[in-house]
Every structure is written in C-alpha cells, then in structure tokens.
Amino acid sequence: MRGYFAVGAEGLSKRMNLGNLMRSAHAFGASFFFTVDAAQSLRKAPPSDTSKSPEHLPLFSWDSVETMDLPHGCQLVGVELTEDAVDLPSFMHPLRAAYVLGPERGSLSPAMLARCDHVVKIPTRFCINVATAGAIVLYDRHRALGRYAERPLTAGGPKAERPPHTHGGPIFRSGRRPPGA
After folding, report:
1. Which of 59, 62, 121, 147 has the fewest CB atoms found within 10 Å of its own CB?
2. Residue 77 domain-assigned?
3. Angle between helices 130-145 and 15-27 (to 10 degrees)
4. What is the pLDDT of residues 140-162, one digit of tens each?
5. Structural domain that includes position 15
6. pTM score of the predicted model
7. Domains: count for the chain
C-alpha cells in the first residue's frame, strides 16, 4: 500500500484498551502510534499489547491537542459518532492519515474535533469498544487502499485475480523530455 497511517486515542484511561489498539495498529502496518491527554500510566505499552509494538513502531504521548505534532501533510481523521460524520463504508481514506479515537465512555474533545480534517463513524446502533472500533477502521483502510480482487456479485470469493499494477512512463515536470528519452 502507498502512503502511511498512524493510530491514536485521546483521553484513554484503560490499559487493556490501549494495548489492544496498539496491537491492531501494529498488525495492520501503522507507521506510529500516539496518545493525547492519556493517563500517566498509559504512556507506555501495557501487557495486553502482546505483539510488543513499541519495539516496531514509535509511540508518541502528547499532553494536549495543541501539542500534537503530526507530520506535514498528514490528515487527522476523527472516529466519532456525530451527526455530520461520514459513514466509514463511504469514506475515501487519505494516503497520509492519523486516525484518532475517543476515550472510553466519552467522546473526542471539541478541540480535537476542530483539529480533524475528517470525521468518520462506524454505522453501528450504539458505541463499541475503542480498541474494536480502531481495528474496524484499520481494516476498512486496508480493504479500501489495498490491491485486492473486486468482490463478486454472488456469494464466495473472486472469480478472477486482480491484474497486477502496471507503471506508466516517466512524468517530466517541465514538459520537455531530456535528450534520448
């Protein structure tokens, strides 16, 4: 897959949720993980992160929304049940994205929502566990941006393999081709 992504949470208080979310981020190939305004005890990977993700991807702990320092060009995608949020199955994921989820028994702060470039919601009847929500969003990103065969119209697997990607010729920004090209 092209691009990169990160996963984080604002205001987490439960170590098991952090560990499970970090494990999912690692499993789906996140470039880094972050927390914002997390409890002091959650500034390192808990035992529920059985993949030991901090050995494989950086963990950033920011004290507030204002101190977040995402890479240039990285779009922040909030995952929250708001009326104006885009349903996840209809959302086109940015190539460079950081997904942020809210705390247990709470929501993303107004400051965090204001900072988000996009807000998506998982179309469920009620809130689900933060670690489960994170895994669903990451699966959707993987499914949407990965190179998979199209789903068939009938039950079962694809009837044909997805053709391999073919690269086009070089693109010259000046509009002129160099000698011999």
Report:
1. 147
2. yes
3. 10
4. 999 999 878 777 778 887 777 76
5. 4-29+51-145
6. 0.82
7. 1
